[in-house]
DNA sequence: ATGGCCAATATGATTGGA
């Protein structure tokens, strides 16, 4: 079973690329972020025509996440626990059934948090605390569980071409990285780091300053795996070539393969 | 060394991203 995550930076601007990439990579499940549209404006039909079920948690103009799955959804639940007043569409959880049991998947778009200090950074840290609580609860279920998305977290210096440029940024501040480590310490596995020690694995290049041409990237899109998912991990990769396509997103897809009987 | 972009929005200049 192949599961991927991609911050598309507007689904309506990225449909041609998404369709081309789905045909090439053939993922079973896709976690999308920054769809930037309400549910009714999401272009379901062309995606459903490719054999995917579609679940959307949209929002006007900003944020918005979605899940695509070749297997039908047993359950779909929008929103992260811990703050019923939070109206930002950044979290969508679903369960699909395989012949050998359920797989739980989350598409998440963690807040950017800049500028720091300030309200936005406070919101990011609280959101991460909520995510830690949620993950702790879900890990008790001892099932294959994939927490995928745009984390807006550079986990370590090796995950940036120029780490010195990020030391005061919300993506790399110690409090941000501490919380990411707290997630890992619950027992989650960073799939890309579990399969490679390379120091040039990036998933985002800014549109500005010729970042792509200079390979001035950062790794901020992650798939974190429960032990029951990590045990089944056979491969992981980053489709960096997609960044050179026409009208690219500033993020590229990241994917994993899990050995699941019959998938 | 510095700045350089892109998307959405009652489309003109702002907000947000990272």
Structure description:
- The chain is an alpha+beta fold.
- The chain has a single domain (2-258), classed as Endonuclease/exonuclease/phosphatase (Deoxyribonuclease I, Chain A).
- Helix content is 22%, strand content 26%.
- It is built from six helices and twelve strands.
- It has helices spanning 15-25, 44-48, 119-139, 174-185, 191-195, 227-230; strands at 2-7, 29-33, 53-57, 65-69, 73-78, 91-98, 101-109, 145-150, 189-190, 221-225, 233-238, 254-258.
- Strands 3-4-2-1-12-11 form a six-stranded mixed β-sheet. The chain has a six-stranded mixed β-sheet with strand order 5-6-7-8-10-9.
- Helix 3 (119-139) packs parallel to helix 4 (174-185).
- It is globular and about 45 Å long.
- It starts with a strand and ends in a 5-residue tail after the last strand.
- The model has no long low-confidence stretch (mean pLDDT 97).
- It binds one DNA strand of 18 nucleotides through residues 9-10, 12-13, 34, 36-37, 60-62, 112-114, 152, 166, 169-171, 204, 206-211, 218, 220, 250.
């Amino acid at each position: 079973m192949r599961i991927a995550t991609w911050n598309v930076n507007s689904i309506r601007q990225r449909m041609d690329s998404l369709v081309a990439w789905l045909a090439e990579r053939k993922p079973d499940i896709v976690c999308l972020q920054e769809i930037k549209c309400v549910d009714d404006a999401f272009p379901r039909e062309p995606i459903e025509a490719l054999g995917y079920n579609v679940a959307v948690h949209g929002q006007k103009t900003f944020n918005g996440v979605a899940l695509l799955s070749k297997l039908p959804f047993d359950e779909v639940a929008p929103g992260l626990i811990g703050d019923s007043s939070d109206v930002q569409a950044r979290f969508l959880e679903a369960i699909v059934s395989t012949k050998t049991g359920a797989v739980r998947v989350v598409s998440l778009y963690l807040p950017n948090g800049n500028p720091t200090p300030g309200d936005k950074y406070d919101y990011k840290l609280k959101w991460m605390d909520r995510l830690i609580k949620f993950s702790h609860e879900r890990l008790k279920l001892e099932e294959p569980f994939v927490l995928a998305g745009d984390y807006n977290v550079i986990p370590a210096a090796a995950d940036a071409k120029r780490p010195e440029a990020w030391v005061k940024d919300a993506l790399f501040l110690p409090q941000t990285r501490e919380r990411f480590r707290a997630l890992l310490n619950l027992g989650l596995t960073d799939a890309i780091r579990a399969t490679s020690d390379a120091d040039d694995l990036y998933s985002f290049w800014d549109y500005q300053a010729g970042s792509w041409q200079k390979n001035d990237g950062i790794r901020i899109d992650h798939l974190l795996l429960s032990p029951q998912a990590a045990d089944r991990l056979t491969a992981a990769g980053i489709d960096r070539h997609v960044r050179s396509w026409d009208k690219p997103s500033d993020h590229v897809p990241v994917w994993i393969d899990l050995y699941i009987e019959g998938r």
